[in-house]
TrEMBL record, chain A:
Residues 25-46, 105-143 are annotated as: Disordered. NCBIfam families: MenG_MenH_UbiE (TIGR01934). Its main location: mitochondrion. Residues 130-143 have a biased composition (Low complexity). Methyltransferase required for the conversion of 2-polyprenyl-6-methoxy-1,4-benzoquinol (DDMQH2) to 2-polyprenyl-3-methyl-6-methoxy-1,4-benzoquinol (DMQH2). InterPro entries: SAM-dependent_MTases_sf, UbiE/COQ5_MeTrFase, UbiE/COQ5_MeTrFase_CS. One of its GO terms (molecular function) is 2-methoxy-6-polyprenyl-1,4-benzoquinol methyltransferase activity. Its EC number is 2.1.1.201. The keyword Endoplasmic reticulum does not apply. Pathway: Cofactor biosynthesis; ubiquinone biosynthesis. Belongs to the class I-like SAM-binding methyltransferase superfamily. MenG/UbiE family. The lineage of its organism: Eukaryota, Fungi, Dikarya, Ascomycota, Pezizomycotina. This is 2-methoxy-6-polyprenyl-1,4-benzoquinol methylase, mitochondrial.
Automatic annotation (TrEMBL), chain B:
The keyword Mitochondrion applies. Its main location: mitochondrion. It comes from Hymenoscyphus albidus. One of its GO terms (biological process) is ubiquinone biosynthetic process. The lineage of its organism: Eukaryota, Fungi, Dikarya, Ascomycota, Pezizomycotina. Pathway: Cofactor biosynthesis; ubiquinone biosynthesis. Gene3D superfamilies: Tetracycline Repressor, domain 2 (1.10.357.10). Belongs to the COQ9 family. This is Ubiquinone biosynthesis protein. Membrane-associated protein that warps the membrane surface to access and bind aromatic isoprenes with high specificity, including ubiquinone (CoQ) isoprene intermediates and presents them directly to Coq7, therefore facilitating the Coq7-mediated hydroxylase step. Participates in the biosynthesis of coenzyme Q, also named ubiquinone, an essential lipid-soluble electron transporter for aerobic cellular respiration. It comes from the Eukaryota.
Length: 346, 245
């Protein structure tokens, strides 16, 4: 398993491992991905974007699944490199910038070591502040926990953080979460990881194999918080997924999305593009031996709508958006979008 | 709309154009809430909870609950509990417009006295929340909140001079507002520690500040002194808001 052997190495010295260790990982590049299925689309089929290619919608689903199957196990390694990329970019642009911009996340501490951008994810969870409740009027009434749904939850990282926050910050042991993903191998990776958390086999944690565009097993108006982190850009029909989010949320419930986004600073934008189109797929190849999959990831980021556009899509689905509708992070490379499902006044 | 008159708390001399436009200012109209309708409704139902739960997210969640919203809807307020502070400032500023002092503006009452009475009225607007007001002040120096807080403070001074019937558009325009902002901020802070009945001590404190400023006002003659004075007044305002300069 690439990620397993790679991780200690990454933690020790990320800047050097590329030079000293590449030959070992290049040998893995023989592994092939299933995404390049022959194009069988009929002329009447609806098409969508797969990175910069235009493909039939049904095919995209298969391709996306392929990409994530390919990267599921080396996903952390890739994520580490992605964040290293952003970190280096900052260093390059602002060589003398204050430490909070360039300091590398302390990934070697605690469980978060397995993921990149821990600060971004922590900020996301912190800004949502899950598990809060009204002050209890009588000591006998236990406050209701939040019912949360983490879509495209992949390896469960966001979900564990949400539960941690609800439990430890807001003293809400009754808050629960369902991790949902379209991809069984991502989901089983999440299940595997949950075993090393305090939520192993806990009824507070459940898993659901589902396409975000069709959550028919989730009842309407049943969820307090719907999160999707670095996932929505992969959805074939984003408006449909947003309408499903709206349906499953309780009135007053929150849709929260963390996603790479259109970079607002044009200089940064240009540099980020050069960096991401060139280096990330290459690194992907070196780390996981699968250049095409990473090419897709980079291109799908590029394809994702700009902040204003995405905010309007959220509104279009019926949500009320707070403030200007989003919060830019790390110079606009990532952004948090939120929407609140309004309560219908009788 | 009030925002038209929200000139920044500035150390520059006023531009002639802004002075001219003020001459044609329409009588103080109700200004719209700084928040969208849904947030305004929730904030309005939050206000009664401030005395017990303070300027806190808990109060916001109680207000949301009153509107049928679950605790997760706290995400409506990216600025958190500061939304309550902002809303309170706006509401109390608006309340001055229907103040008796303004309505029964007797011909005999001078602008100066009206300014003082309006300032006192506004301070009394904090009566119900005064034991919680230090929480509010603790939130204001945050970089994301300070501009709003200062803008509100300036808008308040502006409103008070306007309601008092001050129409002068000379170079004293900024001095008056900066002076009043300073006096107001200092007295407001004093009031949070006042234990006397009916805030008598605060009232005396306010009187003394106005005394000081009359003397100062006479001293401030030339432009150089005026700028220096304004700079100091501005700094003091920031300091009283908790900014360490
Ligand atoms: C980049 S990963 C993000 C994982 C995790 N949320 C995180 O923050 O690291 C994207 C995930 O989206 C999932 N995904 C792609 N299309 C999906 C869809 N239509 N419905 C649900 N999940 C989908 C993939 O299987 C993959 O696990």
């Amino acid at each position: 398993m690439a990620s397993r052997t790679l991780r200690p190495l990454l933690n020790r010295s990320r800047f050097q491992c590329l030079h000293t260790q590449t030959p070992r990982y290049l040998s893995k590049s023989t592994k092939h991905h299933s995404a390049e299925a022959p194009n069988q689309s009929t002329p009447h089929e609806r098409t969508t974007h797969f990175g910069f290619e235009t493909v039939a919608e049904a095919e995209k689903e298969a391709r996306v699944a392929g990409v994530f199957s390919n990267v599921a196990e080396s996903y952390d390694a890739m994520n580490d490199f992605m964040s290293l990329g952003i970190h280096r970019l900052w260093k390059y642009i602002f060589p003398f910038s204050p430490p909070f911009l360039t300091e590398r996340p302390k990934e070697c501490e605690g469980r978060s070591r397995t993921k990149a951008n821990p600060q971004t994810r922590d900020h996301f969870v912190h800004s949502i502040n899950p598990g809060t409740s009204l002050p209890t009027t009588s000591p006998s009434t236990e406050p209701q926990g939040w019912k949360m749904l983490d879509i495209a939850g992949g390896t469960g990282d966001i979900a564990f953080r949400l539960l941690d926050h609800a439990t430890h910050i807001n003293a809400s042991p009754s808050s629960t979460i369902t991790i949902s993903d379209i991809n069984p191998s991502m989901l089983s990776e999440g299940r595997k990881r949950s075993l090393s958390t305090s939520y192993a086999h806990s009824p507070r944690l459940s898993f659901l194999l589902a396409n975000a565009e069709n959550l028919h097993t989730v009842p309407s108006s049943s969820i307090d918080l719907y999160t999707v982190a670095f996932g929505i850009r992969n959805f074939t029909d984003k408006p449909k997924a947003l309408r499903e989010a709206y349906r499953v949320l309780k009135p007053g419930g929150v849709f929260a999305c963390l996603e790479f986004s259109g970079v607002t600073n044009p200089l940064l934008d240009a540099m980020y593009k050069r960096w991401s189109f060139g280096a990330i797929p290459l690194i992907g190849q070196l780390v996981a031996g699968d250049r095409a999959s990473y090419q897709y990831l980079v291109e799908s980021i590029e394809r994702f709508p700009k902040q204003e556009e995405f905010r309007d899509m959220i509104k279009e689905a019926g949500f009320h958006v707070p403030g200007k509708g989003w919060e830019d992070l790390t110079g606009g490379i990532a952004a948090i979008h939120k929407g609140i499902k309004p309560v219908e006044k009788a | 709309m009030a925002t038209k008159r929200l000139l920044p708390l500035s150390l520059r001399l006023p531009k002639p154009s802004s002075l001219i436009s003020r001459k044609y200012h329409t009588p103080s109209q109700p200004s719209p809430s700084p928040f969208p309708a849904l947030e305004t409704a929730i904030l309005t139902s939050s206000l009664p909870h401030i005395p017990e739960h303070g300027f806190t997210p808990t109060t916001l969640r109680l207000g949301a609950h009153a509107q049928g919203y679950i605790p997760a809807s706290q995400n409506l307020f990216p600025q958190g509990a500061f939304a309550l502070v902002h809303f309170h400032l706006w509401r109390q500023r608006e309340a001055l417009k229907s103040c008796v002092v303004v309505k029964d503006a007797g011909k005999g009452v001078g602008v100066g006295r009206k300014v003082k009475e309006l300032t006192w009225e506004r301070l009394l607007g904090n009566r119900e929340v005064i034991h919680r007001w230090q929480e509010a002040l603790a939130l204001t120096p945050l970089p994301s909140n300070l501009p709003t807080a200062l803008q509100e403070l300036h808008a308040l001074s502006d409103e008070i001079w306007y309601l008092a019937g001050d129409t002068s558009v000379d170079t004293s325009w900024y001095t008056k507002r900066a002076t009043l902002s300073t006096i107001y901020a200092a007295t407001e802070l004093f009031m949070t520690t006042d234990k006397s009945s009916d805030f008598k001590d605060t009232s005396q404190f306010l009187d003394r500040r106005f005394e000081d400023s009359r003397v100062l006002g006479e001293m401030v003659g030339s432009v150089g002194e005026w700028v220096g004075y304004n700079a100091r007044a501005g700094l003091n305002v920031l300091r009283s808001r908790g900014v360490r300069i």
